[in-house]
Amino acid sequence: MENLQRALESRGLALASIPGKGRGLVTTRDFIPGDVIIFQEPYASAPNKVYTSSICDGCFTSNNLRKCSVCKVAWYCGNTCQRSEWKLHQLECKALASLRDDRRKLLTSTVRLMVRLILKKQLQNEQLSCNAHTICDDELSPLGTGLYPVISMINHSCVPNSILMFENRMGFVRATEPITKGTEILISYIETAATTATRKKDLKQYFFTCTCARCTKNLHEELEETAILEGFRCRDKQCNGFLILASGIYPAIHPMIGLEFYIRGKLEWLLELTEDSIKSYIKAIEILRITHGTRTPFMKELLNKLEEARAEASHKHSVRD
Ligand SMILES: C[S@@+](CC[C@H](N)C(=O)[O-])C[C@H]1O[C@@H](n2cnc3c(N)ncnc32)[C@H](O)[C@@H]1O
């Protein structure tokens, strides 16, 4: 741990305890956009199964590849990579070679990564805690998975100040904005060009709730963002209205006509709606009211019909029960 702190210090970083997030990396000097904050080879890595035959196990390049003649699973671009990987590969090679063809086809990147991690721990008899990162090429296509112990201490934000990129297997964290001394380094674990609802869904796999500025926007700001990222603008250039996709229907966030445009003429049909979709429509009208500060007569009429439909649906529901 002391070695780690010293190594971090030399790069202008320190490990810190961040309230609500566990550990995190904090700067001890200023960084400017483009600065490489930290770079690291993975502790262990494995190419994606689909790429097993098209990238080198050692450096993740795809030039002049040759298969390991024993296991026929590992590929190398030359002797240098084969030699550098041999210490670890010799431990898995025999086991991989003994797999029947049908079993070998089932071998995933994650399984191979886990095996390699255990073998590496055996080799180094080391305590380690880290999380995996998907290694991508320049076009963000996933090539494999790697465990980067220091980079794995960086927490997430949907408004990150840094970005994690890869050159073959090497992970680089670069500043994307000026970062002053004493600031936490934050990268995004997910696609940031997504609505709050989508980002929340994508973050579920990490078991935490993001409290960044984008995730704590008020309803109006969130809708504006959703409209920009996923909405359909009104064709009328004078109009700022838009339609957004939400759970399979299009609630219309449109100054006057949007909701009418979609729902007028369908009032009878409302009676066929499920309770959940009725609630979505009621919410859509409520949102309209917040966005435009008023309820049009049509919205009032529609709201009454929806409340009736909701009462009817809940009555049907309780009779069925
Ligand atoms: C790659 S690790 C980051 C380092 C971690 N904080 C630690 O102490 O080892 C990812 C984990 O950190 C925590 N984390 C990351 N970003 C967070 C955030 N914005 N808010 C709360 N927890 C966060 C979550 O527990 C997540 O599963």
TrEMBL record:
The segment(s) forming the SET domain are: 11-190
Keywords in alphabetical order: Metal-binding, Zinc, Zinc-finger
The record's annotation in Pfam families points to:
SET, zf-MYND
InterPro entries documented for this protein: H3K4_H4K5_MeTrfase (IPR050869), SET_dom (IPR001214), SET_dom_sf (IPR046341), TPR-like_helical_dom_sf (IPR011990), Znf_MYND (IPR002893)
The record's annotation in SUPFAM superfamilies points to:
SET domain
Residues annotated as domain MYND-type: 56-93
Q: Please give an example of a GO cellular component term from this record.
A: nucleus
Any one Gene Ontology MF annotation carried by this entry is:
zinc ion binding
Please identify the protein, giving its name as recorded. Answer: Histone-lysine N-methyltransferase ASHR1
Q: What is the source species?
A: Zingiber officinale (Ginger)
